[in-house]
Design a protein that fits this description.
By secondary structure, the protein is an alpha+beta fold. The protein has one domain: 2-Layer Sandwich (Alpha-Beta Plaits). It contains six helices and eight strands; from the N terminus they run αβααββαββαβαββ. Strands 1, 2, 3, 4, 5, 6, 7 and 8 form an eight-stranded mixed beta sheet that branches. α3 crosses α4. It is globular. The two termini are 31 Å apart. InterPro entries: A/G_cyclase (IPR001054), Adenylyl/Guanylyl_Cyclase_3/4 (IPR050697), Nucleotide_cyclase (IPR029787). Keywords: Cell membrane, Membrane. Belongs to the adenylyl cyclase class-3 family.
Length: 195
Amino acid sequence: DAVVRLAFESLDAEEALTGEVREVAILFIDVTGSTELAMNHSPSEVAEVLNEFFRIVVAAVDEHHGLINKFQGDAALAVFGAPIAAERAAADALATARRLGTTLARLTLDFGVGVSAGPVFAGNIGAQNRYEYTVIGDPVNEAARLADVAKSLPGRIAASGAALERADDESGHWAGHGSVILRGRSEPTYIYVPR
């Protein structure tokens, strides 16, 4: 993957930070309508709603052996299979997505969840005095794009074929939903949704 290769090449030899290519699954979840929420509620009310949302997300990710890599405003990126390898990374990410779909339905927030899988660079990025553990690669981008697509789907969840190919018994809980052209891509991506 070109992005993973570039990440390795861009690390300065004097400041080489640790990292490796890992096979992982990525879950990206993004809130819909947070701008309107902020316009119509006080900052403390918005923080309260988002904290409840993220509490549910963190609990589901933890339950399925994932790691919240980062919160980005009203979105979260979860990794399954790094920094600790996991044989069922894709199955766990997909099970987490299904769990979030049912648990978050009770909140007043709308959302989109995207799941993808494949090789990424997983490691510390930055300078020696300021770095963070992160994952870089196409599955990360694809999961974020799938979350955008999911916002217009009835169940608010979309997964890639790459995730389903690695999902073992979890794949029985998913059904094909056709192809879409994800933002920034020219080739169609076949997506799956929970049954």
